[in-house]
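Researcher: Here's a chain I'd like modeled. Treat it as a single chain, no partners, no ligands.
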Amino acid sequence: MRLKAAGISDVGLKRKLNEDSYIISPDMGLYVIADGMGGHRAGEVASKIVVDTLTDYWIKMGKKENPSFIDPIEKDLPDKAQHLINSISLANLIIHEAQKQPQYHRMGSTVSALLADKNRIWLANVGDSPVYLFSGGRLTLISEEHSVEAEQKNMGFFDSMSLSGQMMKNVLTRALGLNEKVVSYITHIVPDPGDMLLICSDGLTNYASEEAIKAILKDLSASIEQKVQGLVNAAIDGGGGDNITVILLEILEEGKWTRFKNKLKIE
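Model: Modeled as a single isolated chain. Structure tokens:
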């Protein structure tokens, strides 16, 4: 599977610090966004712990220095998927331990990670930084949102116009660092050439409409880099009230020899 990726992070119009961090690593097949939370730069520290921990983890994996598993993981999952979950659990543990320092008390972070694995892509996430599949002109959320708002919507109780709805909008039910253990959502997709995968912090989705996002992704005349910048610009035009981080992956057509090998299942 051939991928092309681009990413950008912007502080937005109203925040003094950028508490988002991200990874684009084609060599490791790893693409990650972390959205930190906590005062006194703690959110910035938490998100950096996430990207540093996952980067170090997957560098070791590339060297066949596979880290030990922290918690039991479902054995039906392939090796790479198990290690993706484990790398997130390790980041969670490091952030949780760092909270013993008073300046980092109650800091935390979301994480949304994509990992390329032959013809499929693994997705793991904790928190509310969304991941979308853009295919055939349709934008589909493929991550799991861990927020009070999402849970209330699932139960049919949520009213976005109510005072309680507004208060619960950004309250997370899961985040890295808040507890010693964390449960990651994990799934995989097998994308087709021409599909795009969008990872972002909620600074995009809270300030740019779905129609604006789809219009930018549909633009055949724009490069992937221009689309990423266009998404950030749309969020800024919509108020830019939070940090905005975007990673866009485009699935490219395989060459004839690669398609032939895949057909014959040649490794």
